[in-house]
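ARCHIVE CARD
CATEGORY: sequence design from structure
SOURCE FIELD: tokenized fold
FIELD CONTENT:
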């Protein structure tokens, strides 16, 4: 797949979900580097920086995307010859993909320890990391039941329901607005994350914060499964995560909107769940309370003040 094809698929959401987007970006950089016909290091760097910028511009919210791109790209500035630069960049891209896949599997193992035999689990959207926990618990022989939301407008819940059904897990498929109604039957909510800020807020699919609120009210655990590269270093510097707002066409057709001249369709793709409503964040490096987000960014992402000069567009003002 060409770089432009990958960028187009991320933009159109054919490739979606924060972890998958991150791996697709790393894969695109790897393949772009392999194909690069560059006369010298400067030309190669120029080509790769342009590719990185294109990838980062595709979707604004999932921090896994700029984090993956930075992990692959950042050491490039210290290279002194084309051959080594190219070799090292390709190694870093492949290492990121491997690390990401292993992280999801490890999160599944750790997350399954938070599910008990007989539990009813609610999940929202389609998160590899959240599903890894549920699938692992099922594989370990636990008798669990799941409530999976529909996830309007893009219906990612259909993918979740199919995955759960294929695994033989008893699943209730519900509209998003039924989450509070069913919360009294739920023991634990598990969702993924697109970004986690330094104050432990979780940015995930629109509707997540309502589920967290309903869980809080009902004294149900609300747990987030997320790889460490979902934490957002830029938030240490006070930057906010930009919440993507997608086309109104996803909700009402142009023809229908023409009949409603005083109506504006709003379509935010993600929302923010404050740390107060989050019990735990399950990462591949272990389980953290949301209050420890700063420590994760410092220790797991090895973020330091040098990163303040990052040139790539990391996050933008909300
Ligand atoms: O909100 C979404 C996907 O949104 P979209 O469909 O708009 O990309 C997922 O919950 C997170 O990305 C985490 O997923 P994962 O755990 O797979 O990274």
């Amino acid at each position: 797949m060409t770089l432009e094809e990958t960028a187009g698929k991320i933009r159109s959401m054919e490739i979606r979900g924060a972890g998958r987007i991150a791996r697709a970006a790393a894969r695109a950089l790897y393949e772009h580097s392999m194909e690069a016909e560059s006369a010298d290091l400067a030309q190669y760097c120029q080509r790769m920086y342009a590719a990185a910028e294109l990838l980062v511009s595709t979707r604004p919210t999932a921090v896994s995307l700029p984090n993956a791109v930075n992990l692959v790209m950042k050491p490039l500035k210290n290279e002194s010859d084309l051959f080594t630069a190219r070799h090292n960049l390709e190694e870093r891209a492949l290492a990121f993909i491997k690390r990401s896949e292993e992280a999801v599997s490890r999160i599944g193992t750790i997350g399954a320890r938070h599910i008990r035999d007989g539990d009813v689990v609610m999940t929202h959207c389609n998160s590899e990391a959240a599903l890894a926990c549920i699938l692992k618990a099922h594989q370990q022989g636990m008798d669990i039941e799941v409530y999976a939301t529909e996830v309007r407008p893009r219906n990612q819940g259909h993918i979740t329901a199919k995955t759960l059904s294929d695994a033989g897990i008893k699943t209730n498929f519900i509209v998003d607005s039924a989450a509070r109604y069913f919360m009294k039957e739920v023991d634990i909510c598990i969702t993924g994350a697109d970004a986690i800020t330094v104050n432990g807020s979780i940015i995930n699919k629109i509707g997540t914060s309502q589920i967290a609120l309903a869980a809080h009210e009902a004294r149900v655990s609300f747990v987030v499964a997320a790889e460490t590269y979902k934490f957002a270093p830029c938030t240490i510097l006070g930057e906010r995560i930009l919440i993507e707002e997608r086309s109104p066409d996803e909700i009402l057709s142009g023809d229908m909107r023409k009949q409603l001249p005083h109506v504006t369709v709003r379509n935010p793709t993600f929302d923010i769940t404050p740390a107060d409503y989050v019990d735990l964040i399950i990462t591949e490096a272990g389980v953290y309370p949301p209050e420890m987000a700063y420590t994760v960014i410092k220790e797991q992402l090895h973020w330091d003040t040098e990163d303040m000069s990052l040139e790539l567009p990391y996050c933008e003002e909300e």
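CARD ANNOTATION: The radius of gyration is 20 Å. The chain has a mean pLDDT of 94.
SHELF: design records, drawer C
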